[in-house]
Give the backbone structure.
Amino acid sequence: MSFTGDSGTLGALADVGEADALDAQGHVRRRPHFSRRRLREVGLAYLMLSPSMIIFSIFVFYPFLRNFYLGFFRTPPFPGLPKRYVGLEQYREVLTSSAFFNSVKVTVQFALMTVPVGIALGLALAVLAHQQLRGMAVYRTIFSSTVATSVAVASVIFGTLFNPVVGLLPWLGVNPRPPILGNPDWALPAVALITVWQTLGLTFILMSSGLQAIPDELHEAARVDGAGAWARFWKVTLPMLSPTIFFAVVIGGIFAFQTFGQIDLLTQGGPLEKTNVLTYFVYDTLHSKNDDGKAAVLSVALFAITLTLTLVQMRVLERRVHYAR
């Protein structure tokens, strides 16, 4: 049905209901209506999702809001006394303290030591294991074996290796003074090494799955065009792996800012607070100093920093990601 002329068009517009519209050619176009069946399906979907939403709210939203609320109250110096409402004063005090800035600095340094190195090593091992050679399945199993190792086990293994009495270094004739985990200059790199080793299996699996998704025809075409192995890696493999690398960077950054187990088992934030990452700072403030108000402020700050870092990564790095079509 079409209309010509201004008066005809205006008359047609008057006859068209709110659920209808005219397209560019003047034809009446029906807008989709939500039928009762569609409403029932949507209602059933929300009903089935409601248990998960309730559990998610109890274990995620409520603790976060509770922490944010606790940050308004100052913990008394002696137990048994009532907490005092101070509003945003405690947030300003904690977030401008030198201890907080030192903890953020240590956490950023730890993330820079672990995420790029872990991804680079995982990618290198995945490229090596992707070769069609006899017995390569054994090496794939070895490379991915650390994924089954917990943080506690990895910390105990490397803590024994770094031990100044029964460790590997004394056996090799090297006796560092002070011990590595007690040295302010080497404690954080040592913990970063443990973290890289413990997460290397997961990174290797991610990169291997990404390599298997790259069509062999692309490498064959590049080889026919005269591209060498290094050129094929930079021009074909790396761009096609960019979604996997992007995912690994985001997840690795989140994991780095949530590091706790190896710090607690090996250094307890020392020496001289050189390994006092934000997560352990929250734990130490809550359990050692019994100050749940400041610990709540630190936990909110940790959430905000992690969220901001993730959003920035997704905003900046995703522009360089090449999604195959």
